[in-house]
Amino acid sequence: xxxxxxxxxxxxxxxxxxxxxxxxxxxxxxxxxxxxxxxxxxxxxxxxxxxxxxxxxxxxxxxxxxxxxxxxxxxxxxxxxxxxxxxxxxxxxxxxxxxxxxxxxxxxxxxxxxxxxxxxxxxxxxxxxxxxxxxxxxxxxxxxxxxxxxxxxxxxxxxxxxxxxxxxxxxxxxxxxxxxxxxxxxxxxxxxxxxxxxxxxxxxxxxxxxxxxxxxxxxxxxxxxxxxxxxxxxxxxxxxxxxxxxxxxxxxxxxxxxxxxxxxxxxxxxxxxxxxxxxxxxxxxxxxxxxxxxxxxxxxxxxxxxxxxxxxxxxxxxxxxxxxxxxxxxxxxxxxxxxxxxxxxxxxxxxxxxxxxxxxxxxxxxxxxxxxxxxxxxxxxxxxxxxxxxxxxxxxxxxxxxxxxxxxxxxxxxxxxxxxxxxxxxxxxxxxxxxxxxxxxxxxxxxxxxxxxxxxx
Length: 457
Description:
Elements: H1 11-14, H2 21-39, H3 41-52, H4 61-74, H5 108-125, H6 135-145, H7 148-155, H8 160-173, H9 178-195, H10 210-230, H11 232-238, E1 252-253, H12 257-272, H13 278-282, H14 285-310, H15 312-319, H16 323-342, E2 345-346, H17 357-363, H18 370-387, H19 389-399, H20 412-441, H21 444-454
Antiparallel strand pairs: 1-2
Helix pairs in contact: 2-3, 2-5, 5-8, 8-9, 8-16, 12-14, 14-20, 16-17, 16-20, 17-18, 18-20
């Protein structure tokens, strides 16, 4: 996907359009839950708990956290130690920039309305996800968009929904001329300064020609260094507050879970079988197994992804993607892989995978070669498995009668379902890493270097 510097939007970009049916579904669902909350609170809690596995007694819990931090900080409270303004007394683990956003209202009623506005902004942005009128693709996008992961993000009004909206804004800007594309990179920088992981979207700078890429890259680097120097003391204090989860926590995803969980599962099974699993800890075998398995998985993923990216069948199909679908796909790949390899993420952050759906569905259509259909259809199925995981847990336990929750000395069905989920995450990461390799290999900088090597002496 080469950039079209300072040019009019491509025909592909112009055909992107907006699908209002997806946001309409979201508004209807939001209205239904609001009515349930108002008139049948018990049913509201039961339905949500079945869908997201962990509903709180009141909505917008994560958004309440933001103005609570601001309010306490303005009162001189050390929010990096504790935040009494917050219902759960959660210490600050977001960017220090949030504390400086004094325009965010802190009153109870205003917080509720701003949380609702955050949800509506996210819902409105989902209209850009559908790039075709095919009924099957509409159903897939609708199912993924309003899955357990999304409902969890909206029920808590989590700020990752803001990151999603800024990613959509960036993708739309990157279809346009250089001046508008710079605005898109500013949206990426804003998202990064607010939540850090969106800095991965700066990968999109590689779409620019060398001089623009270097200039914007240097400007972004200068801003990052300045931000780090100004807020260094606070950034250091954030680290201990970052949540850490068990490898078998159901509402979490990340690369460390599969190798780490395998070691813990083997230890649990050997103890349950009476073989004694103490030697795992005594000799540090659990950690050793985790590191070896993690390294092996990473090497296999990188090797297979690079091979797929160099495949003429897959690279040609990626080259032919409409500009908007390609932008969404690369942004999603950067965000998803950044979150996946950096550590464990809460389930609601899986909404970044939604951005990949327009591209993945286009690459999995009937007209594509068989290998493309197999690879990218499997990615779509894996995304659906990941974003609907909490509901699948309840279906397995309540409908099928099998516990799908892995715990120490737990049932084999729980570990099997956990393994399927983790393999689905690794599959998504492998295919989106393929997209990143393709994007780098097709960047103007790489193509220019390749052409120089191929030119006769």
